[in-house]
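Run log, item B.
One chain of 315 residues. Sequence copied directly from the ordering sheet:
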Amino acid sequence: MIFKTEFDEERKTCENLTHIEEEISSPALIEIDRLFGAADVLSIKYAQKHYNKVRNISIIAPLIVFLFLLYDEAELHLLIFAVLLLIIILYLIYRKANNENVHDKYLEYRVLAESLRVQYFISKAGIKENVKNILPWLTKIRIPLVKNVLSEIPTATNKKEPIINCWIRDQMKYHDDAHKRASAQKKRNDRYEKISLIATIFFYAITLGFEVWMMYSSPFDPVTANWIRAALKIGVGTSSAITIFLANYYGKMSLSSKIDEHLRMHWLYNTVEYEIMERKEEDEELIMHLAREFLIENAIWYSHQKKNKPDFAVE
């Protein structure tokens, strides 16, 4: 759990802040945008650290399995030191990221940034409502940072501006593009999993064929046969290790959830755009409906991603 004092300290170090819009004149919107920029930069920073950690753990864990197979089956006894070294490296990676609270900061700063985005646009639409009053229950109890930051920001702009292009259509395009990227990524993952499965079945089939051959004709002496068995075990173990990598790395990315979330958000923005065009106005009721639905989706995203904290495990 991240507290506002920690956010205030970290945002002092932020450089090259991102912006919701480039040209902002309202003092209230400038302040909201400044806080958004800090939360966005920090979330991206910790997201990169998180996914680097996931990648490193996902690579090292199956490598440990592979080297141990070489140590055990090929009798390369010195490799046990390499295995021990990799286990130590794996532990240090896990401990460092845990001590820095990387995963929680990535998630909580992202929820904060998106909540500030909502506040920015409802304020720009001339609605005198603080987003803290419509936060989902999950966000209120699990991420107090969001409510604490929102409680101190100005929200009134005394001016109503259109938001259909800068918020609704812009976010609709973002989620459409993100949905395509996540779908392409999932297709790659499915292809890799298929190749891994075929390789595993291949090695098992070769092993079975070899043992049947040995039962009926015994073409090899016992020493040679044992070396062949060792090579086949390493092959089976390697393909299994690749499967572990795919499960750890792509599994933690929750690609199926991402695809569904981007699709839902695209439909939401598309529906609101249609309603605005039908009514020929951006009325407060419709914009507040969008804000509430967005915040609910934000909380759902958080709850899904919270489960994806990397584990210290070598399978």
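Observations after the first pass:
- The longest helix spans residues 164-216.
- The mean pLDDT is 88.
Flagged for discussion on Thursday.
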